[in-house]
Amino acid sequence: MENKINILNKEGQPIGEFNIEDKWIELEKGEQAVHDVVTAFRAALRSGTASAKTRSEIKATGAKPYRQKGTGRARQGSSKSPILVGGGVAFGPKPRTYYKKINKKVRKLALKRAFSEKVKDENVHIVDQIDSPDYKTKNAAELLKKLKLNRKTLIVVKDYSDNTLMATGNLENVLLMKAASVNVYQLLNNNNILFSEDAIKDFVERL
Questions:
Q1: Is 4-46+99-205 assigned to CATH 3.40.1370.10?
Q2: Where are the alpha helices (DSSP H) in 27-90?
Q3: 115 vs 23: CA distance, rounded Å
Q4: N or C of the chain: less Cβ packing under 10 Å?
Q5: Per-domain residue ranges of the chain
Q6: pTM
């Protein structure tokens, strides 16, 4: 696997190289860690607010719906019964959290494995500077075009700037994130990862 990634300028021309150290790469293990972390991330996105009333929460008379015998129907003791229309729900959903605990070592391993896969597939790109001179979307779109990044792209910067946030905000299939906040799901959910030169240095410190 190539251990160097070209650093490009905004015209797409190489102006240097960034060395990928072996300690940042993990391709032997970590598949299960990636699965666990992505599962936990997606679970945490669930609101967990679904709720249905049980028979004890239904407001209704406590009287027997109809007499016990002689109607030809099955006996009923309460109109709150789950088998009747308007009755409570049996084993219905209640508000809950879907949070799953993941150890720090597992998260770190998963991040390293996800990054390593992107490096192996040559989907990690580095540009010397990403900051937009103004807030216009066309400037950010032009940068991606010159870098030949026409699929889902995760742009990673060291810090947000107002111009870059506004310039990339309306671009379809483009996500802007800080190096300190990038997670495994975002790495895997984008075809290309575009780092600024200072952002890649911050990111690899997390590995």
A1: yes
A2: 31-44
A3: 12
A4: N
A5: 4-46+99-205, 48-97
A6: 0.83
